[in-house]
Amino acid sequence: MKDGVMAARSTALIAAATLVAGLLVSGTPAAAQQLPEEHTVTLLTGDRVALTKAPGGRQIVRIQPGPGRADQIFFKQAKGDQLTVMPGDVAGQVRSGRLDRALFDVTGLIEQGYDDTSRKDLPVIISGALHGTSVHRDLPSIGAYATTLEKGRFWASGDARIRLDRRVKASLDQSVPQIGAPAAWQAGYTGKGVKVAVVDTGYDHAHPDLKNVVAEKDFSGDGVQDGNGHGTHVASTVAGSGAASNGKYRGVAPDASLVIAKALDNDGGGSLSDVIDAVEWAADEGAKVISMSLGTSEPSDGTDDLALAVNRISREKGVLFVVAAGNEGADMSIGTPGAADAALTVGSVSKQDVLSKFSSRGPRFGDFAVKPDVTAPGEEIVAARAGHGDYVAGTGTSMATPHVSGAAALLAQQHPQWTGEQIKTALTSSAKPGSYPVYAQGTGRVDVARAVTQAVTATTNLSFSLVRWPHSTGRPETKDVTYTNQGTAPVELALSFTSDAPAGLFTVSADKVVVPAGGTAAVSVRSNPSVLKPGQFSGRLTATGGGAVVQTVVGLSGERESYDVTVELIDRTGAPASDDLEHAVGFFGAEYAPIYVQQGQGKVRLPKGVYRLASLISTKGSATLAGDPNLSVTKDVTITLDARKGRKVSVRPERKAATDLYRSFGAIVGDGKGSTAAITAYAEDRAVEFYAVPAPSGGVPYSFSTVYDAQATDSLDADLVARGPFYSLVHHWPGRIPNGVNLTVRDRDLAKVKATFGSKNGKSGLVARVINGFSPMQVFGNAAFARVHQPGERTEYYTAGKDVFWINALYRVPGDGTNAPSPLGIVWATVYGFHAGAQTEPWNHAVEGPGLPGPAQGLSGSEDILWVGHWGDTIDGRLPLFADVGQYQHTRFDPAVTGGWTVYRDGVKVEESKDYSGFSGPAVTGPAEYRVDGFADRTVPWSELSTHVEGSWTFRASNTTGARFTPAPVIAIKFAPALDAYNRAPATARTLVPLRLERQGGTPDLPLTELAVQASFDDGKTWAPAPVVRTGRAGYAVVANPKVTGKTFVSLQVKAKDSGGSSVTTKVIRAYQLGTSG
Fold first, then answer.
1. Which sites are catalytic (predicted)?
2. Comparing C-alpha atoms, which of 353, 365, 220, 344 is closest to residue 293?
3. Dihedral sign of CA atoms 229, 235, 238, 240 in order
4. Band of the pLDDT at 37, cuts 50, 70, 90?
5. DSSP strand pairing (726-734 vs 704-713)
6. CA 48 – CA 74 distance, rounded (Å)
7. What band does 448 get if pLDDT is binned at 50, 70 and 90?
8. Least CB-packed of 294, 409, 956, 1062 within 10 Å?
């Protein structure tokens, strides 16, 4: 239960359905989805934010201010893996509601396909006039229009309200009788004369079951023909004829007329404006029922644009919207448009009327109203298939919804004068209840057989207001249940009330009621908050008589012990924090609660408990961190945070010539269980100042941390190459806000790293060097990049210690004239830290081949990197096939590379993947012997080495239970010859090739029992043994070289086995070049 803690929610629409046809095939391996992935988003202000998914679940953020905006302070707010970047100068417009906060939700924009690679403009919905825009789509139901804005154009004038036009996605032989449709057919109700609109991915024109389409329109740009399959399945469940199955798979209302509105494209995606425009058109086409098997994955309070459109069209056109509840499966997870008051919101049950685990539950977010309204069959529903084949099985609330839409069409035929609201009450009041909470099933599973025969209907539900703590001060409420008798004789109803609520919470005004023929009668239900306990409570009023069984449900929620917490912000001038600047305030306890400040004040309702409070207060040219690491909330309280009490925070290297590329300062808070949130300020302008209001330790050092990081160098030349040493400084103060910081860091206290950068294509050039520092608990790191020469070297200084760490990288520099590095051809390092003193770090050095890059040992900031192992009943892997010779580096996924994996269990092939980046195959209970074979081929301009790599690993392992990942005892042998900056070995008689044994963390360090190496000088056509000298954990191979007359490459392969039986065979074609000619 949310208990009054409100947070901004994104609204990506998802139609929750899984379509299954014949053999299930595995999709992209879970392991592959964990690889680094980079996106850049240009905000409306022109500022660019690059976000990269890095190893270890962390993400790298690079902010590039727009033209003329270098003096801006940017505020980053992170919750889990979601990031918002708010430029300081848009705060007033966001706070006033003129600009949608979602326009600055970086991860949300990426997830919806609004990053710079995906599109160059930004789709928005605008209320009011905005100079210079044109109307792409008029949306009269919400008094707005849809259009696109040029990214980087800051809309700083006018009174228009601009919202993000969010993306939407597409989320019967037994199930149709299950809801009583055949009985309705026998009574003569088949939907004839009723138009039902399906707003989805279109339909298959050629399918024999769908010849009853009377109107169609495409809103997606892909044409009405269904290239996805979701819409065809839904439409045939509503009104399919069953022609391709001799009637076996006919829909619920087979004689209804279909109106097809394709609002989602063939990829299952669209926009809010597409959907709103589609439902407006469908209503104008005369649809009585509009079926929407789509919904948001984030909960809605029912006041968003789409929900408001549903309510208005329902009211003005008399239409019934039947909407999927969603497949989130959690309490309070129903999104839009299912959260709309007027929507008939549908959950899912099995063919045995068992509530589906995935079915989204109420109460509604915000006001705790009763949702969903009913349930219907939604598991393994067979209906029409688009394209090849006639039918396919589908599962989800998307499949449940069209059952109810068809049932509504049957009632609309029976009662052509009824409004959508009357149809809704008939279906809800006649539903068959299951043994589940009201907030999971509404009144129950739809029973259209009863709905078409019973003359009495009743109010759908009574949603009582949330009662705040203390409940004794809550005011009783009285709400009426209205019974309507459509029959020609009065009906006496006996009333019974059942409830899971404390005794006396609900009182029904009568135990029977007489409903006159053609009339109505009311019974009241009264709440008594004085007996309420914290939690969500519901009841069911059942009226029986004259053959009717009429259901109405009631719901009421009691807040946990909670209090109002008011935060007052005073800036450094002594004035209330300005509405024109951004101020970030957040509490972290059982959950994260951000506060939105207006006129220097913000308020939030929090359950009793201990919280970590963090705030950044803006004054022009500065940001001040203030808060309380150990705030106890036991009563209503006002907290004043005064930026004037802040002391300056400055951390800089002793080198006077070094100037900051950026600085970042803020706080990270957590729950101690791995969930974190962060509030940080980021500035490139050296004139921006940071301050901190000291707050003592609250005894929660790993639940609150003040963090500071910066990167500096002397300057950048015209090629953006650093002219001097590069500094990356990361500092944190666990459990407290420091009493000012004025720290000059001496070089001798830092890690001094000689970073060398090799060339693998025989050419010199530039690459982008990206440095990403992290403190404990930090998920989003900051990065600036400067270019380096390749080949070349650079001196880099890092904060040394056991609790700060880095994820560094090399990026290719694009040839398009921009400063942005390319995400292709990246060499990544795993999570690692540094000890003080001098050290060397090679980058882009051969031999590049299969390996198990790991962290530096003995540093608590470092982490075990797990490349292959068991996760429950699967064997998952993302073994790097292009690991650099450095201890930590590997080349990330590149679309120019092809390859794949094959997995064998006890000699039987169980998985085959054509994605070289990873695999995921089935495991068995207990131990088994596995063999994993992988290969990759590449032809890329930045490397003429490692053109083909392959590996074969054998090991014994057992599966695990739950979510715990257990590493497998795989091994790898790396080749580490001494090469020049172009990765060439001298053409001497012999080359010594040191061999390095690598394992992943958490596996036993066993000795090798077998080790053999071969070399080839004709790209693997012929091989010759290379004697191995055993030393230490592995040894070195002696490669006898031929005479070199031209450009010659050496290929290597190795076979090794340890005492535990794990073995590896790897091969690298063109491991390095021999000689300097060519």
1. 200, 230, 398
2. 344
3. negative
4. confident
5. antiparallel
6. 11
7. very high
8. 956
Q: Of 967, 969, 890, give the one whose Cα is nearest residue 936.
A: 890
* Tokens (6 digits) for 225: 């023909």
Cβ atoms of 700 and 658 within 8 Å: the answer is no
Pair of tokens at residue 453: 């025969």
- How many structural domains does the chain have? 3
Cβ atoms within 10 A of the Cβ of 800, count? 16
> Same domain, yes or no, for 385 and 525?
no
Kindly give the residue spans of alpha helices, DSSP state H, lying in 19-151. 91-96, 106-111
The yes-or-no verdict on residue 225 having pLDDT over 80 is: yes
Q: Say which residues have a Cβ less than 8 Å from residue 187's Cβ, sequence separation at least 6.
A: 452, 453
CA distance linking residue 765 with residue 787, whole number of Å: 10
Residue where one domain finishes, among candidates 535, 558, 581: 558
Task: Provide the CATH number for the domain around residue 445.
Answer: 3.40.50.200
Joined together, the tokens standing for residue 497 give 């009330």
Residues 336 and 477 occupy one common structural domain: no
Residues 409 and 537 in one domain: no
Asked whether residue 513 is domain-assigned, the answer is yes
Domain that holds residue 913: 868-1074
Is 395 inside any structural domain?
yes
Given 558, 583, 606, the domain boundary residue is: 558
Residues in the chain: 1078
Q: What is the pLDDT of residue 734?
A: 86
Q: pLDDT grade, residue 23 (50/70/90)?
A: very low
Q: Is residue 1068 part of a domain?
A: yes
- Smallest Cα–Cα separation from 197: which of 4, 412, 44? 412
d(CA 254, CA 277): 27
Q: What is the residue type of 563?
A: Y
CA distance 898 to 322: 46
Contact 738, 688 (CB under 8 A): no
Residue 33 pLDDT greater than 60, yes or no: no
